[in-house]
Design brief:
By secondary structure, the chain is of the alpha/beta class. The protein contains seven helices and 15 strands. The strands form two sheets. A 13-stranded parallel sheet has the order 2-1-3-4-5-6-7-8-9-10-12-14-15, with helices on both faces. The protein has a two-stranded parallel ribbon with strand order 11-13.
Length: 296
């Protein structure tokens, strides 16, 4: 398992009971499906550590339901549909990970205005935030650096004007960013003031440049998906990388420099045509603990 996937799983998949409230075809493996009434009746005995709240039941008083959840101090991870925003009650203090899910009720989406958290709504212990906003709002569910001052990991879509990146730049404790729809934004210059150690990028427009990647001089894990222009790997040779994961990147250049990165431990090159000669592939496998090269 890659560094990135392992670290992400540690936030999202807890050791205790996972409760799912919503449609059964979305049921995560090993979780318990309950309706809202059953959840209220059983939650204190079950002591769930993760909650997937994907129910759009008009009979549920969302405010009262969230107030009940706010007192469940066993919870560490919560997945919450946008239908429940803005939050009237803060999540319990043990919550370390929050994932926002797209609207379930189309009527709520149609009449929704931009979310705003109240100034007093501060959740200092949330370290992980995910919101891939398929509704096309790009508003990060209204969160800000003042809402989640301790945030270390963020994953989201980036809007055309880059306002999402302006918000992300303010999370001073951020060490991991998973950014989709990066378009042509110079994410490296924008994030250079942060201590970014893990970075995953996808959704490139033609003309996206890696020229400034060296500005992220703390970078240890780099994942790239579907970059289809020329990518000179000499640009990353001086970074303290432990893991490089390249998927569907079909124009890699100078892949041999991977052998020159002294900190490197893990290389994954999947469906990238054939950037490695057999000799370099063999040398990598002899040198590194984990090498996964496939479909080349």
């Amino acid at each position: 398992m890659s560094y990135f996937i392992k670290a992400r799983s540690n936030y999202l998949f807890t050791e205790g009971p996972e409760i799912f409230i919503g449609e059964s075809n979305l049921l995560p493996d090993g979780s318990i499906r309950l309706d809202p009434k059953e959840f209220i009746e059983k939650a204190n005995n079950l002591r769930p550590t993760a909650l997937w709240l994907c129910e759009a039941d008009s009979n549920v008083n969302r405010e009262e339901f969230l107030k009940f959840i706010s007192n469940l101090h066993s919870l560490q991870s919560i997945h919450l549909a946008n239908d429940y925003l803005p939050l009237a009650s803060l999540p319990p203090s043990n919550i370390k990970a929050i994932s926002l899910l797209p609207f379930i009720d189309q009527e709520l989406l149609d009449r929704c205005v931009e979310f705003r958290w109240q100034p007093e709504q501060i959740v200092p212990d949330v370290h992980f935030f995910s919101f891939f906003d398929f509704d096309g709002r790009y508003d990060l569910g209204g969160i800000s650096p003042s809402t989640f001052p301790g945030l270390k990991w963020i994953e989201c879509f980036i809007d055309k004007k880059g306002r999402t990146l302006d918000t992300i730049q303010g999370f001073s404790n951020l060490t991991t960013a998973y950014l989709s729809h990066v378009r042509k934004h110079d994410v490296f210059s924008i994030l250079q003031g942060l201590r970014i150690k893990m970075l995953k990028l996808e959704g490139f427009d033609r003309g996206f440049s890696f020229q400034n990647i060296g500005k992220l001089d703390k970078l240890e894990v780099l994942h790239l998906n579907s970059y289809r222009e020329n990518l000179d790997l000499r640009l990353i040779v001086d970074l303290p990388l432990k893991e490089v994961f390249l998927l569907n990147c079909t124009k890699l250049e100078h892949a041999e420099v991977l052998l020159q990165i002294p900190t490197l431990e893990s290389v994954h090159i999947i469906d990238c045509k054939k950037p490695l000669s057999d000799a370099i592939k063999k040398a990598l496998k002899e040198k590194l603990p984990l090498v996964d090269v496939d479909f080349q």
